[in-house]
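Researcher: I'm preparing a figure for a lab meeting and need a structural model of a single chain. I don't have an experimental structure, so a prediction will have to do for now. The sequence is pasted below. Please return the structure as tokens so I can convert it later.
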Amino acid sequence: MSSKKSMPISKIISNCIYILRYAIKLSPSYYTVYIVARSLLLSIQNVLVVLMMKFLVESVGQRKTFNDALTNIIILCGILTVTIISLIIIDKIDEIKSGCIIGIIQREILEKASKIDLLCYDRTDFYNEFIRALDRGETQIAQSISLVVNIISGITSIISIVAVIATINPVIAIFQFIACLINLVTMIWIKKVEYKMNLESDPIARKRFYSRRVFYQASYAKEIKLTNIKEPLLQQFYNSIEEERAVVKKYGFNMILVKLSNYVIGWTLCVYCIPPLYMLYNTVVTNRITISEMSATHNANTNVFYTLNDMSNKIMELQNIGLYAENFKKFMEYDIKIENSIGDTVLCDRPYLLEVRNLSFKYEEDGDYILKNVNMVIKPNEKIAIVGHNGAGKTTFIKLLLRLYDAMEGGIYYNGRNIKEYDINDYRKLFGTVFQDFQIYAGTIGENVMMDYTSIDDKPKINAALKKGLMNDKVEFLKDTVDTQITREFYDDGTSLSGGEQQKLAISRLFIHKKPIAILDEPPSALDVVAEHELNHSMLCEFKDSTIIMISHRLSTTRMTDKIYMFENGMIIEEGTHDELMENSGDYAEMFRKQAQYYA
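Model: Understood. Here is the structure written out token by token.
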């Protein structure tokens, strides 16, 4: 959805209906009973309030005894009290039920998010919608349920009160509907303007929040104190405030004029002036209505207006939800292409031939190619290195091998079959992977190695993996060893790891479940030369019966591999062994010689 494109009313209604249907299906019987019960109770409450006023004035006008009046008032008050208590109880039940429903919605959103194709994260427009869906999804649905209940309750309440007014003088109700219509039109215009204003101010607000946030996050504290970066950050913060002020000024004046017009015409004339004068005329001059009827009608008339006005606000909230619900609807209805792929089982007993045939890829249909006509044959148990400068397409190529992306042209074949023919989850079980941008999670060391739940039985293999990843010396000296919490996100006594220790921990994940194919994207980049050499030796020994694919800028590892592929601008420009490429004196040889002083 384009952020600058206005949305037609029909689309807003369609989106609201989608969200409401999505909500109601979660608990249809409960919401049916709740809507009916609340609507009925609210109608009874409003009618009783009107009738009580009429009865009080009639009692005075007809000079009824106090005891006669008291008996009837007690009966009406008793019914009204029971009605109000019932409304409070069912609203409290709904509050509890809504919490459960929100939990279910959040779970469904997270499950959907876990399956969204990776390519969506690389597309700015979809990613923005994705974030809005996650941020507001469950809130939209919870609000939708509350709003539809209030609107239906309001409609039934208005019908019941108007029915009472109609028995006295139906013309009076017209003024309230005129006032409500004016208010509704005004609110629609204001909400559209507010939506446009939010679209302009949201990016500015994000910039302001970012500029402010970095000042109280520990990860930024050292650089802020030791450098002058705080000056441009503060300036960015001040600029964003001025930009937000300009946006408010751009839209604010017209909004004030429209609101003033609404209050003068809609509220003052159609609610507080004309209806009372009309009722007074019909009571004093024409004698069409009695004093008690005038009093009850005025009370009912005011009640109708406030109910209509409240409904107008609720409708405007639905409009607002409808505008943002487009993101939620698109997110939930997104057709997952890769992550839901079902196919044949993959043989995982050993590595098989992996072929790349005329592979080409780009992120957008009309974008530039990231990879173009790549061909590669990786034999079982072969150790290969993929090298090249930043932006050459190396990591994108690995993501295609893992089928995180699908090729635009050409294909990847494993054991003679296109990888699209395999079940996606089964296919990915072939690979053990460590990416350059690996993540460390707020959990125990054991959980971060297993990347799953852990048990006591898992500790021996976790310790063995940490030893192969050269991380055992650190872990053995920790109080809780593999049960030590990493980061202080949830525990004050959590431990912090250095960059090199985090990388060793991530690489240890490879050793916990030995896979036919190991993929390492810049595996030892945070390690010193000695640790890098030890770790490479450990990996080559452990995975001697596996295929290894390494991406590296540091070419010290490439001498240990069977074959090297050099990428440039998305194409393979050189391939061969280390000795062959050095003999050719091409780009690889030049890169190697520039780095030789660091690992000679």
